[in-house]
């Protein structure tokens, strides 16, 4: 079985992004970029399925400008076999990404497609679900455990109320949550090897998809700043303030 | 304009978050139809009919909808959304699971986790872990929105008597089935709806030590939350995680104990009205958002706090 993993280049999760002075967008100039953490978990899961002999090949795809090849190389260093970059403007909209991934799935015919549950830049949490709908295949979002059993997949999902387990028929789409696995670090030899692994470049037009969204960003603003309050010297003082000043406890 | 809202429920009762989604729908300003899809969920439809601001309740009662499987519910929503200008659901794990499928089937992008309605096609939402608020305008033919519950004051749960109409269409995918679930049981208030939340982090050291927080919570009538680190370490279950990629809370009072205050955690709680931080490290970033900070060892401070309540 072939596995397809969609990975996105995003701001490093440690970086606190700032709004541009003209408030047109956030400022990404000279900001450290990385593989979206949820995508890293997706790659790790795919590589583990290959190591277990469940999967035969792991193909990673990223849609965006040339710079996303860097994240594809990271995924290759983590153990993916081959990569596809689909050249498109940076941060394409979710529906366009899902349409492009659907086209790639048509040619690659993966048994399982893994995505992150959420890109930590857009915080959209929608691409995997859209892809599953376009392919008319079942989905298991927010996965914390994935087990392949023949033609089926048993996936445990992190839902608001606790954990839910679904049984899906392959091919299927899975989006990853934090507890699915702990991604490995790429070793230096693997980083070197990754440079020689195949990386194919396509364009959205090649795939017959016009990237573009009818949702326009009018502008961004910084969130309401909270001013740091006061330090209290003791538990007694804290309780007194909460009762009499903030009036939030009886 | 007309708005279709997906009701959030457990086949027995309507979840309060739906009242906030209706509030968002009312801010858009059009007729609201509330779809209750589930199994043996007639009682939920009765409750839904009483919600102020709802014109009509659609009841789709079939085993295929018992577990809100996205494959089935999205097809039902697609059918019922014909002619609607907006389709809304809560930005809960249920809404996030189902609604993007509807958007894709309609051929539109979804606007996720909306926190303000500025016009019927202009919305605000948080991006980058809440470090920026984006204002977006949509020219899509249908607006598909998930709504951040904490951002909208709930409408009244009773006082209305909308008509209930049955929907007979059953969509059932053969490719997916519910296997089992392990739902957390708690007598405490629900995390996202509680007016006081006490959360613990890695500083708690283990799961047993969370008992200290449960005791404080029980005295305050509070819910208990956690940081990702506490969940990852297995101290508490996943449904307690507060943050960018967990639950969003905005209580009257949030007490963070042994939590450093990473941006991903702040994204989930910094809209709380009053924030208290108890941490032994006075440099911990959580103090930058805390109204009241106590630099102390939690193992001394928390029992003392409990005793003084
Ligand atoms: C993709 C991604 C998504 C994430 N999503 C989330 C999310 O949704 N929610 C979330 O919370 N995190 C999230 N994180 C993790 C986040 O970056 C932090 O790692 C996490 O919040 C840290 O948890 P913590 O504050 O409990 O642990 P730490 O950062 O280890 O802090 C522990 C704190 O406890 C204090 N402490 C220790 N002992 C004591 C004591 N005896 N008395 C008093 N204080 C004490 C320490 O001083 C320290 O400040 C995410 C990370 C990534 C990469
Ligand atoms: N430009 C992209 N290229 C490849 N994969 C993407 C892209 N955008 C989103 N994805 C995938 O979709 C997941 C969810 O993203 P989102 O729906 O934007 O939150 C990500 O974790 C990726 O797996």
Spell out the blueprint of helices and strands.
The complex is a heterodimer of chains A (about 250) and B (about 300).
Chain A: E1 2-6, E2 9-11, E3 18-19, E4 26-27, E5 33-35, H1 37-51, E6 57-64, H2 69-77, E7 82-87, H3 94-108, E8 112-116, H4 127-135, E9 139-149, E10 152-159, E11 162-169, E12 172-176, H5 188-194, E13 199-203, E14 215-221, E15 230-232, H6 235-244
Parallel strand pairs in A: 1-6, 1-8, 6-7, 7-13, 8-12, 9-12
Antiparallel strand pairs in A: 2-5, 3-4, 9-10, 10-11
Chain B: E1 2-6, H1 17-28, E2 31-38, H2 42-50, E3 56-61, H3 70-80, E4 86-90, H4 93-106, E5 110-119, E6 122-127, E7 132-138, E8 143-147, E9 163-166, E10 176-183, E11 196-200, H5 210-220, E12 223-226, H6 228-232, E13 253-257, H7 263-269, E14 274-279, E15 292-295, H8 298-307
Parallel strand pairs in B: 1-2, 1-4, 2-3, 3-9, 4-8, 5-8, 11-12, 11-13, 13-14, 14-15
Antiparallel strand pairs in B: 5-6, 6-7
Flavin-adenine dinucleotide (FAD) sits at the interface of chains B and A.
